[in-house]
Task: structure prediction
Amino acid sequence: MPDELKFENCSHSKDPLVGCALEGVATVLAGIRDVGIVIHSPQGCSATVALGYDHQEIDFTQRKTACTRLFETDIIMGATDKLKDLILHADKTFGSKVTFVVGTCAADIIGEDIEGVCRVLQPKTGSRLIPIFAGGFRGDAYAGMDLALEALVGIMKDPEGAGGTQGARSVNLIAPQASLNPTWRADLAWVRDVLARMGVAVQSVLTRDAGMHELRHASFASANILLSHDVGRGMARKMEEAYGIPLILADQPLPIGLGNTSRWLTALGERFGAEAAARDLIARGESLVVDVLRRRGLMIIPRYRNCRMALCADATFGVGLARMLFEELEMLPELILLRSGRPEAKALLAAELASLGISPQVACNVDGYQTRRALADSNVHAVLGSSWEKYLARELGIQLAFDVLSPTDRDAYLDRAYFGYEGMLNMLEVIANDFERALRSKEIAWENYDPQPAPERV
Amino acid sequence: MTLQPVTHTPDSISDSIVFHGPLSELYRLAAEGKIPTRLQGSHTRPCKFWTAAKILSGIRGAIVLTHGPGGCAFGIKQAYKLTNCRNSGAVYEPVLSTSLDQSGIVYGGEKELKGAIAEVDVKYSPDVVFVATSCATGIIGDNVDAVIESMRGKVKAELLPIHCEGFAGEYRSGFDLVFGELVKLMDAPTPAERERLSKSVNIVGAKMGPERTEVDTDVKELIRLVTAMGARVNAVIAGNCSLAELKRAPSVAVNCALCLDIGYAVGTAMRDTFGTPLNSTILPYGIAATEKWLTGAAEHLGLVGEAKALMRAEYEAIREPYERAREHLAGKTAIIEGRDAIKSLSIAYMLQQDFGMRAVIYNFHPWSVEARETSIDYMLGAGLDPEILITKGALAFGKYESMKQTEDELLRFLGELDPRQTVYFGSSLSFPSIPLVDLNAILNRPRFGYRGALKVAECIKTALDYAFRPRSALAKRIVFPENAGLSSAASLTPKLAQDLPDCTVYAGARRRGQCPMN
Result:
C-alpha cells in the first residue's frame, strides 16, 4: 500500500464511522421479503435493527420485529422462556414465512441457546425459524453483513440434489446494500439493466426484496458478482465450495467513472459472450456523458483541474473514484481515507494507484479522529465524502466539501445511481452544486448600502 | 373533573376501553397492580445506554468513551452528534469506543479501557471523560470503577464512570442516572460564589447539546424571559454546558426545571447535596405554567417585582390576539395523544388552566404511570386530574402507536363527540375527523412562555377556522399506503417512530389500507 498513514494513540480507542455487526446483519435480513425478526436483546438494540430496515427502505407497514427487552434479572437468570413466548407471539401475529431469531451482545454473551429454542419451537410455529448470533462484538457492520450472508448459504438448495441445473447465463448479485450511495437501489437497478441488455438473468439479489424461493435457488446461478469491495467474499467463497459457482469481476474496480465502467462492462460482456452489447453500452454511455457535460457542465473539469482532493469513502467507492477523479476529472486525489479495509480491497486500491502512477497518502479502517487528523495535516482544496467529512472540513477551514456519500445532508427523493454513466453525471451534479453553494454569496451584504435598509421582518 | 357520560351501545367505544377515568384513579390502579404497566415486546424504547448518552452529549468539552463494541458509540454519534452538527452549529463531535471484539469479551477489556482513557486524554485534551458502560462490558464484569481510579492523576481530564448498560433499567433511568452522577463533578458553593451568582439560575433537564441555530426554540424563550427579568443563566444542564459551568452550578440562586421529570432528578440531587433551591413546575406551556415557573425563579432571585413587571409586559404584548383566540376555546374539548406522557400532561394542564377546555388524554400508556410519577404527582398536587382514556389497542402486541385497533377505537370515541367542539392534539400524520393541532411542527416554536401561549392559542383557532378543509388526500395516501400489511412501527428509527401518530397504519381484513376515520 503506497504511503500508508500511521496514527498515534489509536490502539485502544476508536471514534467509529461504521456500525456494529448487528446493524450489518439487520441490513441483510431486512432485504428478505416477508420475514419476521425476533430480537433477543435489551430494547435499545431494536433501534439498530431499525437502521437495517431504514437502509433497505422497507415500508414501515412491512416491518415485523419484536424484542424480548432484556433487563437485569433476565441477564442473571436467563430469558429462554421469555424468548419462547415472544417467538410464539410473533409467529402468530406476524404470520411470516420465516422468522429470524437474532441474538445480540447480551444474549450472545450470557449464552442463550437460541439455536436450541428454535429447534424446539419449530414444530409449533408456522414460520421457519432461523437463529443468528449477531453480538456487536463480532465485528463491524461489514462483518455483520458477511455473517448474515454466509448464514444464508445454509438455506440454499443443492442444485444436484434438487434435480435442477445451473443456468448458463444467470448471476447472483451480492451485497448491493454495502454501499455509501444513499440511494444504492439505483446502482442495483443499473446493474440489472446492463445484465438484461446482455441477455444475462439475475437469479438472486443477496439481499434486496428477495423472496425465500429466490434465496433458496441462488445456488442455481452460473456466477456471483459482488457489488461491494467490502462485503460478500465469504459468501461467494462458500457458494463456490458448495455449488461450484465462480466469483467474477471481483479483481477490478466497480463501474464508477468512465474508465472503470468501460472495463467492467467489457469484462462482463466477455464472460457472457455479449461483447457487442457491452460495446454498445459503452459507446452510448460515454456519448451521454460527453453530450451532457458539453451542454451543461463545460467547466466541470477546468474548474477543478489539479484541485487537491481528500477522498473519504468505503472501498466500494474509494477504489473506483480514485481513477475517476485523477484520470477523468484531472483532480489530484492526495489523501484517500477508507472506512473499511479488507485485504482484497486494499490490494485492489494499491494496484489502481500504481497503474495511475500516483502515491497519495492512504489509510484504511479510519475512524473519526484519524479522518480529522489526516485532513488537518493535509493541504487539500476539497473533500469528497459524507456529511461527517463536510462538517470536519468546515471546522478545519477547507472551503469545498462535496457531500456525495452517506450519511448525507442531501434529501434525495428519487434514487440516483452512482454506478455507470448516469451515475457519474449524478455525482458530478452534486459536486457542481456543492461548489456553487460554497462559493456564492449566502447573505445580502448590507454593509455595501448606505443608508442600510432595516429588514422588514425580524 | 366530572366525567362525561358515555352512551353504551353494542358497537360503542366502551367495548374497547381498558380504562376511562381520572388520572388519579389510573395512578391508584397501577400502584395496586390492578392494571398492567409493562410494555409489550413490540413496544421498545431507547435503552438506558442511549438515554444516558443523550444527556452526556449535552456537555461541551467532554468526551464520551463507551466501553464495549463500537456499534453502541456509532449509534449515539449518528443520532445525536450528527444532529448537533447539522442543526445546531456544533463542530464535529466524536464518540469514542474501546471497540471490544470477541477476545475482549472472553479475556476482559480492562486493559483496553485503561489504554483508551490515556489515548483519549492525549488526542482530545478534554475537560472530562465519561466512561459509559455497555451491555457487553456490564455482563463480563469489567471493573470500570477500579480502572478509572487507577487512571486518576495520570491523565489531565476528570474521569467519571457511568454505569448505563442497556439492560440495567428502563430508558428513563439513563436520564436520572447521568443527572445524578453529574453532581459529583460540581463544586460545593462558597459564600463568595453564592454572592457572585445570586442573580443567576440554571435551567436543568435539557439534553443532547446546543439549541438549533435557526429556530426560535423553547429553551431560547426561557433564557430570554430569565434575562428580561434581570437575571442570568449560568448553565443549561445538559444543553451545551461546560465543565466550568457545571462546577459552579450549585452556587446559583435557583435551579429551574425545564422538564419536570428529567430536570427533577438533577434538581433534587443538587438540592440534597448542596442545598441549591429547586423551582420545579410542569413544562411551561401556557400562561399559568409560565407564571408559576417565572414566579418560582423570581422568589429565589429576589426579583419578584421585576418578574411581575415582566409578566405584565409579556402578557400585554400578546393580550389582544390571545384573548381573541381564547374566546373560541373555552368549553371545548381537546383529545391529546398520550404517547409523550410529560407533554400530554403539560398540554392538559395548559388547556384546562388557561383556556378552560376539557382535556382527555388518549392512550396514555399505563407504563407511563410508573415512569412519569413526578409529573403525575405534580398534576394531582396542583388539583388537576385530567381524564385518561386507554383502549385495548394500546396494550396489544404490535406498536401501540400504529395499531389499527387504536385507530378504530379513537374513531369510535370521537364519533360520540361534537366535531365542532373538539380538537385533537397530536401528530399531523394522523387524520382524526376533528380539527388537529400539531405542536411539534417546527414552525410552531416557541411553545413555552407567553409567546408560546399565543402560538398555541392561534394554532387551535387556526385548526378550528380551517376545519372545513379536508386533510390532503396526498397526505393520507402517503401515511396509509394501499396494500399495507400488519404494521410494526417498532422497528422504525426512534425519530420517525416518534413522529407517528397513535393511529397510523395497520393491517386488517375489513378496511385494509384505508383510514377508517374518514
